[in-house]
Design brief:
With about 280 residues, the protein is an alpha/beta fold. The protein folds into two domains: about 190 residues, Vaccinia Virus protein VP39 (Rossmann fold, 3-Layer(aba) Sandwich), CATH 3.40.50; about 45 residues. It has nine helices and seven strands. It has a seven-stranded mixed sheet with strand order 3-2-1-4-5-7-6. The radius of gyration is 20 Å and the shape is globular. Bound molecules: S-adenosylmethionine.
Length: about 280
């Protein structure tokens, strides 16, 4: 059978590379790394928005925190020193995402190397969209949580297709609530990170960063793009300031992503983001 096709358009399923991608996170390590991470957050509104929310939420964690799909463990330093941290990731993390980090338990398959009912907080930042079967992942989260524990997720919404092809989903608040309900969690609280202004700033900033850092071919295109990028650098800084400021909004129906908190079944959760202002 001959299927119809659209002219001048790629079949995206064949795509295996990205025009440009931001550098991956590095584990915490000294003053220079901290300065670079702050600079990254100034220019990367996604990173800034997640950091801002987790800075408010993670100090509320007690006991044992499990970070699933932990990558470079970029938020570990936000936990109190009394917390026991366990980072786990899939054995494919190095090959597919570039992460190979000490003090991480790498595992194969879908069953986490963690005992039942042994964890106080399960966190997974920017991971659920990379999981082919989110319902299996959430069932594991429920299995390992202790009564009284909670789940903390961040997921992107207005974000490009990244780590191609290992980026499978975008979630909405109602979609997340439905997935969590099916997994047996209590009613989640879902916070939007930013609003329409944040998204507009983020997208234009991404274009300028692509001109500055992207690997365009052939070489004359690349250097032309670099010159344009340098000329647009003042706009980049202005958008970073406006976008950063817009992250203080209550959240819009277009946003960079969502931060979600869900209680272990049957538990009523205090609202940590509201409680700490
Ligand atoms: C975009 S990285 C995020 C890393 C880190 N959590 C962060 O916020 O920087 C996605 C991570 O999800 C992990 N991952 C992908 N599929 C997974 C799965 N089915 N279960 C657990 N982790 C998974 C990857 O190995 C990778 O470390």
């Amino acid at each position: 059978m001959n299927l119809p096709s659209l002219p001048h358009r790629d079949n995206m399923i064949d795509r295996r590379s990205e025009a440009w991608k931001p550098p991956i996170f590095r584990p915490d390590g000294g003053t220079v790394a901290a300065i670079l991470a702050s600079l990254r957050r100034f220019l990367d509104l996604q990173a800034a928005s997640i950091w801002g929310d987790l800075k408010s939420l993670l100090p509320h964690c007690n006991g044992t925190v499990l970070d699933v799909g932990c990558g470079a463990q970029p938020y570990r330093s936000l936990l109190r020193s009394s917390v026991r941290y366990i980072g786990i990731d899939r054995s494919t993390a190095a090959e597919e995402f570039g992460y190979q980090v000490p003090d991480t338990r790498y595992y194969e398959g879908t069953v986490w190397p963690i005992d039942d009912a042994s964890i106080d907080t399960v966190m997974a930042t920017e991971t659920l969209e990379h999981v082919v079967r989110p319902e299996v992942f959430l069932a594991e989260a429920r299995r390992v949580l202790r009564p009284g524990g909670w789940l903390l997720l961040t997921v992107p919404f207005a974000a490009r297709w990244h780590y191609i092809p290992y980026d499978y989903w975008r979630f909405t608040p109602s979609g997340l609530a439905s997935l969590l309900c099916d997994a047996g969690f209590g009613r989640p609280t879902v916070y939007a990170r930013g609003n329409e202004v944040t998204v507009a700033c983020y997208k234009v900033m991404a274009l300028i960063l692509m001109l500055l850092l992207g690997d365009l071919r052939p070489a004359p295109w690349k250097w032309g793009a670099r010159v344009c990028g340098v000329l647009l650098a003042p706009l980049l800084i202005g958008l970073a300031v406006i976008g950063g400021w817009s992250l203080r909004s209550r959240g819009g129906s277009d946003c960079l992503g969502y931060t979600l908190i869900a209680p272990f079944p049957g538990q009523v959760l205090r609202d940590p983001l509201k409680d700490c202002g």
